[in-house]
Specification:
Length: 117
Amino acid sequence: MEGLCKNCGQMHLVSAETQEEADRIASESCDCENEAKWHRMMEENVEMLCGEQSRDLNFIPLDDTSLRYVKTTCELIHAGFISNAKFSAANSEIKINGVLGKVDIKRTKKQTNQMTI
Ligand SMILES: [Zn+2]
């Protein structure tokens, strides 16, 4: 059936049971540029890399305040107010860079092994 993207109004052919579902699928699969969509994707990515889900990548999750800081930094870079940021948190280094209108987040684990005998 036909679903309508809530962001740009574009029509998409989707398989859905109800109009509501069709519109939701159309909105999610539409590749239009949209701030709300960007924001949702950014939140998901930051959660994956720095939130509880980062345990799957063998990272220590950031505390809520730091996590908010990462998201705010992404927003500031996205808005063009700052160009990059680098900081250390939860035994890792986090680099956020604005590259050609996109925001790159890189998290590197600080791992040092030392033995004193
Ligand atoms: Zn759209």
